[in-house]
Design brief:
6 strands, single chain, elongated
Length: about 110
């Protein structure tokens, strides 16, 4: 189950963690225990990170929102406490290195003697 969350959610009771569910899914974000549907569940908010378009030289992405997942206790395979920096690194979006490119050919008329 996922919900988009506002960044104005209270940080009360949250701790940064890496959670593996059934050993198949891995999430890094802020987590806490909540009661839902009459049962205790894990709530983990995963930050949605984006690179600022107006700053192409930016070294770090910014948080544009949160995606929330809820899991029952029996489905949790692993729960590891971490810090905010590590959680952000795990969720960091891929950014190709644009400075790398193939060199220009020496002579386009030169043919390979095969």
């Amino acid at each position: 189950m996922t919900d988009e969350q506002n960044t104005t959610d209270a940080d009360e009771g949250f701790e940064w963690a890496v959670v593996e569910v059934f050993g198949h899914r891995r999430h890094a974000g802020r987590a806490r225990e909540e009661e839902r549907f009459g049962a205790k569940m894990l709530r983990i908010d995963i930050p949605t990170l984006v690179w600022p378009e107006d700053q192409p030289e930016a070294k770090e992405p910014t948080i544009s929102g949160w995606v929330t997942h809820f899991y029952g206790g029996a489905s949790i395979f692993s729960y590891t406490l971490t810090d905010e920096q590590t959680a952000m690194q795990i969720n960091r979006p891929y950014r190709p290195a644009s400075r790398y490119s193939l060199p220009a050919p020496d002579d386009p008329d030169d043919e390979c003697p095969v």
